[in-house]
Amino acid sequence: MKSKFCIKCGKKTETLFNGLCEECFKEMNELISVPEKAKISVCKICGRAKIKKWEKIDIDDAIKRLIKTNGKLEKIKIEKEWKNKKLLVKIKASGFLNEKVKKSETKEIEITIEEKLCDTCGKIVGGYYESVIQLRSKDKNKLEKTLRDIENIVYNNNGFIVKILKNKNGVDVYITPKSLLNKISRSIKYNEIKTSYTLVGMKDGKNLYRSTMLLRL
Ligand SMILES: [Zn+2]
Ligand SMILES: [Zn+2]
To answer: Ligand 1 is a single-atom ion; what residues have CB below 5 A from it?
Structure first.
């Protein structure tokens, strides 16, 4: 077979990758790329993390989002260590840059963790909630089952249950955001529905309404 030469180091080789020998190709190409520094906010109450917006993810998930992969990853290991109030993250990755070339890399990110209140918890701590679902039924099992269904819908949609108050007529569920009311009423079985709005104050110069949805099961 005819030999070729690497355009970078001049080494004689049979296989070139973009004109480079395997060694130089590995040197010039990254399997993963990460920022040197990053900032992640973590909610003190619910543990949600934020890089750009608040999401139901933990620190490990947030770290994974900072990693960009330029090949096919086979293995990735994330090690964390606290140093001077910063989280030093070591990422060991191995995988393929292309069909033939395998590479292992270790990269580091210095992460500043900020403990904060997420938008949702901030509102709750401020005693603020946007909507109430009043579940009414004499059938306790039906009430319990519907309550569980509502909890699932709220959590699966990044919402929050502020409080649940049981009374003799049924259960009141305080949730945020109120946009979830439509989703809930579409997925829950009921006999009667009534929605009303109460003016509860002002926010940013606009009237702020609380929605109340009464469901007779
Ligand atoms: Zn070379
Ligand atoms: Zn939170």
So the answer is: 6, 8-9, 11, 21, 24
Q: How far is the CA of 4 from the centre of ligand 1 (A)?
A: 11
Written as six digits, the tokens of 214 are: 């009464």
pLDDT of 117 strictly over 90: no
Residue 6 to residues 3, 25, 99, 104, 105, Cα–Cα distance (Å)? 10, 9, 19, 22, 22
Do the Cβ atoms of 173 and 197 come closer than 8 Å? no
Task: Find the 180 Cα to ligand 2 centroid distance in Å.
Answer: 18
pLDDT at 1 over 70: no
Q: What is the 27 CA–ligand 1 centroid distance (Å)?
A: 9
Q: Where are the domains of the chain?
A: 30-116, 128-216
DSSP H or E segment with residue 156 = helix 140-156
What are the tens digits of pLDDT across the range 192-207? 999 998 887 776 777 7
- Residue-wise pLDDT for 55-70, tens only, equals 888 888 899 999 999 9
Specify the CATH number for 30-116; select among 2.60.40, 1.10.150, 1.10.287, 3.40.50.
2.60.40
| pTM for this entry | 0.58
Using alpha carbons, select from 178, 182, 184, 167 the residue that is nearest to residue 200. Answer: 178
